Amino acid sequence: MKTLHIFPVCEQRECLFQLADMDDPAPGFEGKELASHFCSHTGFAVGDLIANRPERQKELFEKYGAFRVIHGDNVVFEYSGETDEV
Q1: Cβ atoms of residues 57 and 64 within 8 Å
Q2: How many angstroms separate the CA atoms of 22 and 2, rounded?
Q3: Model confidence at 9, in pLDDT bands (50, 70, 90)?
Q4: pTM for the whole thing?
Q5: What residue segments make up the domains of the chain, in order of their start?
Q6: Would you call 62 helix, strand, or coil by DSSP?
Q7: Cα–Cα distance between 32 and 25 in angstroms, integer?
């Protein structure tokens, strides 16, 4: 199962969060950005980037097959062709 990561690009409360493939680094970055969203709080990042985005879930499933998303140290979302929120 492919693992993707959500992380903030700053240390402020309101911040841009990225969904990234850390196994496929882009030049000059740790990972390849798959999506980004400006969130008013870290708690909204999962929904804004993946959980409330069925079109993105399907797109990533077509690219990677089954995948999970880690935010911080926790698996926060899994997708295996149907919505499988953790």
Answers
A1: no
A2: 10
A3: confident
A4: 0.83
A5: 2-85
A6: helix
A7: 5
